Each structure stands twice: as C-alpha cells, then as structure tokens.
Amino acid sequence: MDLEKELKGRRWPELWRESPLEVPELQDYEKDPYVREGRIVLRPLGRKGITKPIPPEECAITSLVTSLDDRIFGATSGRRAHLFVYDPAPGADHVIDLGVLEEGCGVRRSLVASSDGRIFAGTRGEHPSSRAGGKLFCYTPMDDYSDLYGYRVGKIEVVATPVESDGIAALAIDNNRKRIYGISAPRGLFFVYDISSGGVEVNGAVDELGIFSDILIVGKDGCAYGAKRWGSLFKYDPECEEIVPLGVEIPSLRGRKRYNKVDSLALDEYSGRLYGGGSADGVLFYFDPQDEKMISLGKPVAQPRIRALTVGRDGIVYGIGGGVGGMGHLFRYDPEGGDLRDLGIPLATSQRYWHGYEFDAATTGPYGEIYLGESDRISHLFIYFPPIPERKRSTLKPPV
Amino acid sequence: MDMKSFIFSELPIHDTCWSITTGRDGKIYVAVCGEMTGGLGVFLVSVNTETDRIEYLVDVAEALNEPPDNGHATHSKIHYCLLPADDGTLYGATHCTGPPLGHRIWRPWNCWDDSIHMFTGFHIFHYDPKSGKFEDFGIQTPNEGSRAMALAEKRKRLYGVTYPRDHFYVYELDTDTYRDLGRIGDVNPQAVWLDREENAYTADDLGYIVKYDADSDRLLHLDVQIPHAPFRDGTHNTVYDVVPSPDGKSVYGVTWSYDSRLFRYDPCDGPEGKMHDLGRAYGPEIVDWKVFDFANHTGGLVFGSDGYLYFASYVCWKEPKGMYLIRMDTKTLKREEIGPLVADGYHTQYISKATKDYASNLFFASCINRPTRIYEYTPDYVKEGHPRRSWPIVRKWG
Q1: Is residue A397 part of a domain?
Q2: Which of B13, B37, B183 sits opposite A378 (nearest CB)?
Q3: What is the pTM assigned to this prediction?
C-alpha cells in the first residue's frame, strides 16, 4: 500500500501540547537518576587548568588505597599503567601522575599502603596474550610534595617478580606482620612478600581447577581471605601458613553460582565483617570471620557486578554496582538499620560536568569522604561526600 | 526573499526534522522525527525540487521491526545520520529520546536497566530510493542512539558517536562489523566530519578536537580547541554543524554552545591542523545565562554557489524573534542578514541542518513545530541562471 495513503488513515497517539518539563510531577524526572544524597565532585588525573591529565586509554582507575598520611594513591590500567596520588592538602587538591609502571598493563585490586609510608603495586597484562605484568612495584615517597607551582615525586622501583610468567591478580597487606599477600594470574598461586626482607614465598594454587576470584583482603584476625571457584571462600592462616577452604559460598541467584566470583571486598575495621559483592548478579553480602557466617544483603542495583566497595568511617558501606559497558549506580548499606539503597548514577559538575558510568575501585578518605575510581576510556577520580546526619540529641540547652 | 516551505502534513504530530541531505537523484531527503509525543517513529521523506512533490518513502521504525507502540522508547529520530552515497543510495542510523507510547518524557539514564522502557539500540540501515529496497544492518549497541554519523565511502566505513555514553564507533560496511572505540566525552557532539583522507573528526564537550586516525585506527585527542567567548572556559562547547569549504581544504563549523562561534579548521595545516576563530556567528554577544539556550542557536550551514557561507541564526534582540538566514563572505567575514526564515505563515524557531540541490537552491530543516517542515531559499544566483552543479554537491556527514 502506498505509504501516503496509509498515513491519511492512520490514528496517531494523543498529542501532548505542553512541555513535559512544565508538568509539576515530571519536573523532577531528569534529575532523578543521579546521586542526590550527599555531593559528588571529581578531579581530573592532572591539575585542571595547568597540566594534561593521564591520557585516555591509560587512565582507567582500577586500584585505590588511602595511605597513612591521608593521601589517596591510585593506579590505572590500559595501554600503560600509571601510579598517581591525590593530594588533598591546602594549595594542592589535585592529582599528580607519579609515573608509568609498565606498558600494556593493569593494576587491578593490587595496590596496598604499608605502615612505613611505602605504596606497593602489582601489575598484570591487560590481555591474555600479553607478556607484560607480574612485577611488584614499590613507591617510596621520600620528600614528595605538590602545590600550585609544581611537585616533586618519590622513587618507583621493582622490588620483586613474585611468580615468574604470571601476572598479579590481587594484593592485600598485613601491616602488623609486614607482609603482602598476593594471587598470581592465570595460575592462581598464592604468594607472600616479606616487606622487611624482600623475600617471596609461593604457597601453591588457591584452587585445584585454577578458577578463583581476583581479590584478597586481610581480616581483623590477620588471615587473608579470598575465593576459590564459584565464590567459595578460603583463608590463608599466617600462623600455620596454610590455605584453608572455608566451605562457604558467596550468594548468587539460583543457577548462577558457576558464573559467580567475588568482585570486591571491604573490611569493617570495627566489626571485623568482610563486606563483598558477587560478579554474576551483583548480590551484596557480608562474611563474619568470627562465626564464619555468610549473610546475603540483597541486590542494590538492577545490574550484575559490584566492582567497587568501601566501608565509611561511620560503618555505612558504599559501593558501585554495574557491569562493563553499563551505567553504574552508587549504593549504600547501613548495617544499623539494614537499609540497602541505590543512590543513583554519579554525576559531577565540578571540576567538570561528567557522568560516571564505570568504576573499578573505591576507598574511604580520612574525613569520611568516599573516593571512587572511574574506569572508562577517559577517567577521573570521583569524590563522594555522604550527608552529615542530623543530630538526634544534644547536651546544649535550646534557647529560652 | 524567495522562501517557501514543504510541510509534512501527513505526519501531523511529528515535530522535528533532524536530518536533511540530497541524494544523487537530486531529491532532498528528510528524516521526519517525533520526539515530543510518546509512540512516534521516524519517517523517511523525499522532496522533488523540480515538481515540489513530497513523497513519504519509509516508515523507518516499522521497517526495522521496532514498531513505536511496542512499549520501548521509540526509534523516533534519525539524528544527523542520513548520508548520501555516490551510487544514489542512502545510509542511515536511528536515534532515541522519543518516549514510549503513552509516556510524556523519556531519558536513557532513567531506563538503562529497564527491559521494557529501554531503547533497544540504534540500527544502521541502507536505503535505495530507486528500487525502494530497505536493508536493516541490525541493532549495533543496546540502549544507545546514534547522534551523528559520517560516511567514509573510499574506506567503506561509517563513523559515528553514540548517545548517551558518547562513544565513538566505526562500522565496517564490507564485513558488517561494529566496533566501539570508547568514550570521547560527556556532552554529545552534533557532527562528525571527514578530511580528504577520510579521517574523522569531532569535538569533545570542552571543545577539543578528537580525530579518528583511519590508518592507525586510533582516536587522538588534539590540542586544538574550537573557539568560545572570552568570558567562558570551554565548558559545553562542542560542535553543532560543519561544512566543507568549496575548495575542500578546510571545514567551516559552528559551536553547539551558549555563545555560538563560527570557526574554520584546516586539518592539514600542521600536525594537528589549525583552528581559526571567526567570531560570534551573528548578532550581539548574549551573556544572559537564562536565555543562552535558544538565544544563541546557529545551524544549517551550507555553501552557496556564490561562495558565500549561508546559515541560520536565532535572533532574540529584535522582533520578530526566530531563525534568520544569514550569509557570510568567508574572505572578509562580513555577515549579511537576508531575512527571517518564514514561509506559509510560520517563522521557524529552530533550524538543524541544511543541504542544496543541483541548481544550488538551499534547503533548511526545521524543528519544534507541527506539522514539521523544511524551507527552500532560492538565492539570486539561481534566478540569474547559475549553471547546475555535478555530483557530489553535498557533504557525506550529517
């Protein structure tokens, strides 16, 4: 049929004459998907207005850690892996690129801060065929410094190659024992780096089939926790120097456990709980090492994966849910009331108008601010300031 | 002023014409879009400039098996993504933001993970006006629309930018493969253009030129910025419309921004090309933020056969307010106001893009009115018998 004739008889939808943004109940619609509880700003990976940031394709932030001197260190993945620091000091409030670690590499969940001020980073190849990676780098701050007029950096050096021909999939640090624990990739060998002596001990594979999660954390009990295949937890007990399967699986939707890995872990220093997120379905959980209980807390967002997680100073857990190529949402879990809530898409307007879609790292700052490492082709360091709770009581007397 | 309009009255509640181009057959092809009412799909329409006949060619959303009443955000637009090929065919890509049927508003951020209200993802298609054959190359990436596209015919590629995530893509026509090269910014650019080697260019949301180097298959972020007003810092200063200069060595463009700057960019002048600030497109500088959005729009850039750059600018400082046709001598940069874009009693408030026919009549696509329409302006040189031009007469980008 001739389209023009057909159009003459076509019934069209009801016409809306006014703009939707003039309709009161719809006015909020465009602001609604974004984080509104608290405030979000970002910092480019280089001082805005003065220097060029770490270039696209090598700036995806895939590891973050807060150092003992309250600076935020980060590492990137992509064509080249960079180590950077965010210096919050007066006159600074900017990111300094400390240098390139390796080409064709990433630092993924493999950045730890030592109590002596040094920062350690482990690299892995970005592609299965890559021969790069596998080195343990150490950054010694010495008298590094930055302000508006320039900066000085410390020393970056390779201190070990823990497992020959493997990359480093994850690192965790025990500052009491002065040890760094790691897992190699692809073989999944557990290794221990002695910070004092520089020696490395390789303890064998964490999983018999070589399927494991690229994540490690040191609990309050001094054990290192990770996951074998299908999200089944293990711990490395430093006393007996053994990997002990715990027989506890992280939660997933039914039928999905074989697709599930531990995507992120964060320690609540106060309670000793290990909070985590699963990759397959984005289910948040906590594991209590004391009674070895696994509690599923639910799915905070309508996407798979929880790629970044950190515990705030007030005990509230913050994370980002969402897969690669998706549109990540920030969420929070309040262990006091059990409220698990999606906070929305991180949208910053300062220092640049920018939607944050993909994130792979998080850490908590000294004043409770939450740092989120964007991991896109062009990436920024996001800073989330959670709201300050209204006071419930006061010793001050109200005015008469 | 010799101005007339072609009104697409068979699409009475469609409201915008985001794409306009000229086919090798000399007809003007227009994407008639419906983004302000839920449940409308985009139509492809042609105008025969010799007979003044409008032909409704394809119900594009239906042809893609994406009927606009299926509950999803609709394939409501072809947004700067209707491109003429040398063989007389057209390439196109669809775009979103039209609400689902029965809805009054839709944004991708609200519906990204909603399997019902999501946009299914843009299709690339090929249409042969001669045979009427319509070929769907399928959904390229879920959720996203294609904001702007260019045809690199020698390299057999399409280049484009997605919305909302602002990823640059390459579509290989030989192998039907889609490649996502990643994010280039935040606010979407409204044009992707080509140089003579068919490298692609666009701008990020700070106005820096992003070049796709076709030989190395890499995106390069150049230290070249499109101009902005001195009181601004480049925020939301991306590109709106770009046309090749008559000699093909440069492009002229206008910013999609609050201060509406014209520029000339010479891509081969030095390693990163050279940018020339040609000043505010037309009229006095507007610094009142609350009227920025409309007060500064300029679009519809097209070169006439007289060598002048014609474009449409919004005039807010005198009555009647609306889009005016301007022409600029590119040697002296002197602007001349030809007059308001009015025909059939309607003064258009927004012009998106422009094209021309073999006789060098100029055609401007109008937006935000119902039924929507295009305007034809016949310059004096046409009446004076300026010789017809030969193909190619228009750019191969949207």
Answers
A1: no
A2: B183
A3: 0.97
pLDDT at residue A1, as a whole number: 62
CB A148 within 8 A of CB A134: no
For chain B, which domains are there?
A: 3-383 (2.130.10.10)
Note the pLDDT tens digit of each residue in B290-312.
877 667 899 999 999 999 999 99
In a domain, A334, yes or no: yes
Q: What does the block give as tokens for B183?
A: 């994010």
Residues of chain B with pLDDT under 70: 293-294
Q: How many CB atoms lie within 10 A of CB B351?
A: 29
Beta bridge partners of B171: B158, B178
Residue B139's Cβ-side half-sphere holds a number of Cα atoms within 13 Å equal to: 12
Residue A271: burial class (beta carbons within 10 Å; 0-12, 13-18, 19+): middle
A3 located within any domain: no
- The three-class DSSP label of residue A290 is coil
DSSP, res B356 = E
The tokens for A82 are 């960079």
Calpha distance A350→A151 (Å, rounded): 23
Which residue of chain B has the CA closest to A5?
Answer: B10
* Complex ipTM value: 0.96
Both tokens assigned to A368: 């409770």
* Inter-chain residue contact B13 with A13, CB threshold 8 Å: yes
Q: Answer yes or no: do A378 and B205 touch at CB < 8 A.
A: no
CATH classification of the domain holding A326: 2.130.10.10
Q: Report how many domains make up chain A.
A: 1
Q: Domain limits at A226?
A: 35-385
Amino acid letter, A304: P
